[in-house]
């Protein structure tokens, strides 16, 4: 699968234009995109990063990491996903960076999602749905998730997000209406962000392969 990830990550470079500030996600597929971005670093103005991990990798290539507050809308955001349905709605957050990823996706005009073929599903939910929670609300949120969805929330123990919060992964969901589930979970006090990207799906999906497929 890492070859498919590399092919997807490198293909996404075609969406980068001269002088752009590029939004950059998190994960192993994005790692290939960052490395390719490093090869054209003189042609971009910098990057907005969704995680400390990606910031470090961007800086290692000499790419300046820019504060989202210092700029207007972003023309382009490139990120991976854990699942992608035919409407380009996503589950993200396997790397625990979902909140910043959601912020950058929202700020961007074009969201290009890069995946390997195994990430494509008909219905979202086989991958446990990550939810970032305020630590003191963990068990309250877990009970509310069970009541609202019937899914089984499991604490990703030991993982602390870049925002100092915790992750619950919801197992056993079959998400036939992602917009409704996203909205319902967002309303639980203590939830910081839900790893469902239904309200803001990807605009373009690149599926890594020889040749890459554009959806
Ligand atoms: O949402 C994410 C991080 O929070 C990643 O994009 C997602 O987990 C996919 O990762 P990978 O490219 O390593 O398969």
TrEMBL record:
Substrate binds at residues 26-29, 79-82, 92-95, 119. The active site is at residue 101. SUPFAM superfamilies: D-ribose-5-phosphate isomerase (RpiA), lid domain, NagB/RpiA/CoA transferase-like. Pfam families: Rib_5-P_isom_A. It comes from the Bacteria. Its EC number is 5.3.1.6. GO terms for molecular function: ribose-5-phosphate isomerase activity. It catalyses: aldehydo-D-ribose 5-phosphate = D-ribulose 5-phosphate. Keywords: Isomerase. PANTHER family: RIBOSE-5-PHOSPHATE ISOMERASE. NCBIfam families: PRK00702.1 (NF001924), rpiA (TIGR00021). Homodimer. Belongs to the ribose 5-phosphate isomerase family. This is Ribose-5-phosphate isomerase A. It comes from Luteimonas endophytica. The gene is rpiA.
């Amino acid at each position: 699968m890492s070859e498919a990830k590399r092919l997807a990550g490198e293909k996404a470079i075609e969406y980068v234009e001269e002088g752009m500030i590029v939004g950059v996600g998190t994960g192993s597929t994005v790692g290939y995109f960052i490395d390719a971005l490093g090869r054209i670093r003189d042609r971009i103005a910098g990057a907005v990063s969704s995680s400390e991990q990606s910031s470090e990798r961007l800086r290692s290539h000499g790419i300046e990491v820019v504060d989202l507050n210092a700029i207007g809308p972003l023309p382009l955001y490139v990120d991976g996903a854990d699942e992608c349905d035919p409407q380009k709605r996503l589950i993200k957050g396997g790397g625990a960076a979902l909140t910043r990823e959601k912020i950058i996706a929202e700020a961007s005009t074009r969201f290009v999602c890069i995946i390997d073929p195994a990430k494509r599903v008909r219905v979202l939910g086989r991958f446990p749905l990550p939810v970032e929670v305020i630590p003191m609300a963990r068990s309250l949120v877990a009970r509310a998730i069970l009541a609202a969805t019937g899914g089984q929330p499991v604490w990703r123990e030991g993982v602390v997000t870049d925002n100092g919060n915790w992750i619950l992964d919801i197992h056993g969901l079959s998400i036939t209406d992602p917009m409704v589930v996203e909205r319902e979970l967002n309303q639980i006090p203590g939830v910081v962000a839900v790893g469902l990207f239904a309200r803001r799906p990807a605009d373009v999906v690149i599926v890594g392969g020889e040749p890459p497929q554009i959806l």
